[in-house]
Every structure is written in C-alpha cells, then in structure tokens.
Amino acid sequence: MTITQAEENHLKAIFKIAEKEDKPALTNAIAAAMHTTAASVTDMLKRLADKNLIVYEKYRGVQLTGEGNRIATALIRKHRLWEVFLTEKLGFAWDEVHDMAEQLEHVQGEHLVSRLDTFLGHPKFDPHGDPIPDAEGRWTYRKQSLLTTLLPGDRGAVTGVDDHSAAFLQYLDQLGLGLGAELELLERFPYDHSVRVRTRDGRELVLSEKVTKNLYLNILSDRES
Ligand SMILES: [Zn+2]
Predict the structure, then answer these.
(1) 126: CA distance to ligand 1 center in Å?
(2) What is the mean pLDDT of residues 112-136?
(3) Is residue 224 predicted with pLDDT exceeding 60?
(4) CA separation for the pair 34, 30 (Å, rounded)
(5) Which of 89, 179, 180, 69 is nearest to 133 (CA)?
(6) Domain segments of the chain: what residues?
(7) pTM of the model
(8) What spacing in Å lies between the alpha carbon of 22 and ligand 1's midpoint?
(9) How far is the CA of 106 from the centre of ligand 1 (A)?
(10) Which residues have C-beta under 5 Å from ligand 1, the single-atom ion?
(11) Average per-residue pLDDT in the chain?
(12) Which one, out of 89, 93, 132, 187, has a CA that is 20 to 30 A from the CA of 47?
C-alpha cells in the first residue's frame, strides 16, 4: 500500500488533535490544522478509511486504526529526530527547524531512521521539549506544569512549549528562557494574570498571561503543604 505525503500529514494531524483534546478528531479541527477546507478533508477521510487507516463516523469524529496510529507515530519520530539533528549537529536554532523537518519526515527508509537515532544517542526529547517515540512507538512522558499553575516561591526549569511558532521561540530566546532555564515565581498579578519571575542569573521579568499559558516547567522546589 502506498501512502501519499498528504495522507501522511492528515494522519499526523489526526493523531495530534486526538492527543491534545483526548477525544476523536473532528473534521473542522483537522481542516484548521491542515489549513484546508472541511470538504477536502472529508474526501481525504474517505480515502484513509478505504485504506483502513482511520475509523470515520460522521459527527463523532475520526480515530486512527492500529496501522494509522503506527504510521503517525513513526512520522512524529522521524520529524523530531530530524529536529534534534538540525539543531545539535547542523547548528540551527530551535525556531528554524520545524519546516525543514516537515519535509525530511517524509524521506523513506527504515535504516535511515534507526541510524539517525543511534547517531544522535537515542534522544528522548526534541529541541522544543516534545517527547520522541522509540522504534517500538513507546513514548517517554515526564511531569511538567504550565507556568500558570506555579505558586509564588515555586522554582522550575523550562521543559517545553505549547506554542511552537517561531515568533514565540524567538521571544523566549530574547528573554533568555530556552529549555533548561531556571526561574522562580515571585508574584502573580490578578489584574491581567501576568507574573513576575526571577531568573537564575538574578534578572526579574514580568511575563504576560500569553507566555505563562504556553510555557511548561518541571517544578524544582519542594512545596510545603
Ligand atoms: Zn516540529
């Protein structure tokens, strides 16, 4: 069975929507993710259903079959391994690699992926902090919290982002808040839900609610109950 790049991209979109919303993906959500119309998504869904890659029930949404899930997971694995390669080995910044990885993920070859994985030392997370599934499709999850949930006095290290746009990643670079950056929450402002934080090198920053809703950290401090 041959699967086109467009079909692969739809499977990946369905996987990501279902993962994020924790329920079957609806046609409109898939269309929004693919920047296309609901009508063309409906055509695509019929084709994917004919190939037994999805189960499609009108109004209930779309679920991946075992094979559909396997293909989507393999694509995400390739995408994120290429992102690690591009940043760690070719020196690209974390805001530059996504579009290149969108193309590289479609390059076929079992051995290519496994050698890339070995070459990179079997990384578990990509440059944005997202988990990379292993060759068997197993995911490594870790405990992380959105900055919105931290309490004054909490310290944390940045582990990931919800907004993957280049604009947000560049802004985080400007603030010195890349992956691994440590900060302490000093104060929350109820007026606009912004927060004041102190970085490890002693700088104090005020972060907007938009930033706090898109930044994941693992909490380092012991909370006193
Ligand atoms: Zn990416």
Answers:
(1) 8
(2) 96
(3) no
(4) 6
(5) 69
(6) 5-64, 145-219
(7) 0.91
(8) 21
(9) 13
(10) 98
(11) 94
(12) 132
Residue 116 and residue 97: Cα distance in Å, rounded?
Answer: 16
Radius of gyration of the chain (CA): 20
* Average pLDDT value for residue range 181-189: 97
Could you tell me how many helices (H) and strands (E) the chain has, helices first? 8, 8
Phi-psi region of 113 (alpha: psi -120 to 50; beta: other; left: phi over 0): alpha
Taking the centre of ligand 1 as the mean of its atom positions, its distance from the CA of residue 204, in whole angstroms, is 30
Token pair in block for residue 152: 């004054």
12-26, 92-106, 175-189, 201-215, range with the lowest pLDDT? 12-26
- Ligand 1 centre distance from Cα of residue 189 (Å): 33
CATH class label, 5-64: mainly alpha
In Å, what is the CA distance from 13 to each residue of 8, 32, 47, 107?
Answer: 9, 10, 15, 18
In CATH, what class is 145-219?
mainly beta
10 Å CB burial of residue 127 (0-12, 13-18, 19+) is: buried
Q: Closest Cα to residue 179, out of 143, 115, 107, 129?
A: 129
